[in-house]
Amino acid sequence: MKESKAEILCDLIDPERRGEVTRSDVCVALKCWPNQQAILKDINVLETDMPAMKRNSIIHLILESKLQNKTKKGALDKVKEQLDQIYGPSWNCYIAEKNYWFVCSHRPGSNLAFTYKGYVYDLVFSMNTPFNTEKLLLFYDELTEAQAVLPVKTYLDHLIKWGMSANKAAALISMVDPRNTGYIKREDICRALNFSPTRPTALQDVSVISTDMPGKQRDSIILLVLEILAQNRKKAVILQELKERLEIVYGGKWSCFIAEGRYWSICSHKPGKNLVFSYRGYVYGVSESPDNK
After folding, report:
1. Which CATH superfamily is domain 42-126 in?
2. How high is the pLDDT of residue 33?
3. Which CATH code fits 205-292?
4. Residue 140: CB partners within 8 Å, gap ≥ 6?
């Protein structure tokens, strides 16, 4: 082999310049797996960063789905359903005939493209997530303003109180605490959802007028208000749902209002349980009524 060609090959095999290579490094670089199962002999891997066993398992899954479904759409639906169940939600699946070009962002270790009998198959675990990461972090922060870690059970119960289905909450917990330690940290949520935390972008148009709430609880409630507003319902319905949700999460009796234009108010409320803010021309307020003694 010519020296120049050998150098190109070594760059492929050892891109991080470690100075050492293994047999598997050569196989990965050349996309050649001599010991793979006979059923995979017709497979030509175009691109992947998956571990070998995971890659082969997913290829088997695709070929099995292809045999069981007469249509391409049926096969894709089945593949996505099973991948979401096994590895978590947010998989994208593609089948293309002839030429295929694609560029995307995906989670590390979760990309696979291969050809099989004239078709290109591509699967990526999307960077997107069905979870509202900013809101989930606020829920966590609200519960842990005075502690470093949080019991999983406490976080799970809080998610369900805020309206997340039990199944979706359980799926999130399995991602956040995959080793079942029973405790989670804030960075566990960021890692599982591939998120770099900043103050929620949804709050940039919010101007807080008055509050005595802790910061994370304040932001959690503002996000709840904005979430309900996005449903474009009548003001009376919005207020009723907001009141019910606050009482489920925090207990007690809450008062809620919406005002258009300028607004003046004075009221009695529990310490740390008052919030008034403006958002796109309206003023929103919530407060927990003091106990009657």
Report:
1. Protein Inhibitor Of Neuronal Nitric Oxide Synthase; (3.30.740.10)
2. 55
3. 3.30.740.10
4. 150, 155, 184, 186, 189
User: CB of 113 within 8 A of CB of 121?
Assistant: yes
Q: What is the pLDDT of residue 100?
A: 60
Domain at 129-200: CATH code: 1.10.238
Fold match, 42-126 / 205-292: yes
Q: What is the pLDDT of residues 113-168, one digit of tens each?
A: 888 888 888 888 765 555 566 677 777 777 776 567 889 999 999 889 888 888 88
For the segment 92-110, the average pLDDT, to the nearest whole number, is 71
pLDDT tens digits for 104-126? Answer: 556 777 888 888 888 888 888 76
Which one, of 78, 87, 101, lies nearest residue 129 by Cα?
87
Whether the Cβ atoms of residue 272 and residue 212 lie closer than 8 Å to each other? yes
Pairwise pLDDT comparison (92 vs 40), residue with the higher score: 92
Where are the extended beta strands (E) located within 64-118? 91-97, 106-116
DSSP string, 30-47: HT--TTS-GGGTTEEEEE
Q: Around Cβ 138, how many Cβ atoms within 10 Å?
A: 26
Where in the chain are the domains? 1-34, 42-126, 129-200, 205-292
Q: To which H or E segment does residue 150 belong?
A: strand 150-151
Q: How many CB atoms lie within 10 A of CB 78?
A: 18
What is the average pLDDT across 202-209? 83
The residues near 169 (Cβ < 8 Å, ≥ 6 apart) are 156, 159, 160
